[in-house]
Amino acid sequence: VQLVESGGGLVQSGGSLKLSCTTSGLIFTDYVMKWRRRTPGKALEDVATIGSYSQTKIIADTVKGRFTISRDNAKNTAYLQMDELKPEDTAVYYCVAVARVGPNVYWGQGTQVTVSS
């Protein structure tokens, strides 16, 4: 199983980035997809979650109204559109696949997002 994130980088405050998470080796629709982020000195934060068929979307209050999660089941890919970025959004962002049934959880390698003020 592989989860490969892309789309991170350096952006100015107020800018946008779109993260992609392309998966392989799993049945994509058997998994809920999450985006999590880790900031030095802070706990790991669940940023967004999307159900297998996009029927459920959960966005953290810290990013609500600015971030959008989506998925394309035909492409086995999940996305995180990040708009109106703030310096406090600077973090390593991880894509996580959580099985709807059973204990399997898979993580991507992470992608750095840096927002300059």
Can you describe this structure in just a few lines?
The protein is mainly β.
Shape: globular
Structural class: mainly beta
Number of helices: 0
Low-confidence stretches: none
Q: Mean pLDDT, rounded to whole units?
A: 97
Please give the oligomerization state of what you see: single chain
Instruction: Give the distance, in angstroms, between the N- and C-terminal Cα atoms.
Output: 37 Å
Search tags:
seven-stranded mixed sheet; mainly beta; 117 residues; 11 strands
Give an account of the 3D structure.
Helix content is 0%, strand content 55%. It is mainly β and 117 residues long. The model has no long low-confidence stretch (mean pLDDT 97). The strands form two sheets. Strands 2, 4, 5, 6, 9, 10 and 11 form a seven-stranded mixed sheet that branches. A four-stranded antiparallel sheet has the order 1-3-8-7, with no helix packed on it. The radius of gyration is 13 Å and the shape is globular.
Outline the fold blueprint.
Blueprint: E1 2-6, E2 9-12, E3 17-24, E4 31-38, E5 45-50, E6 57-59, E7 67-72, E8 77-82, E9 91-99, E10 105-107, E11 111-116
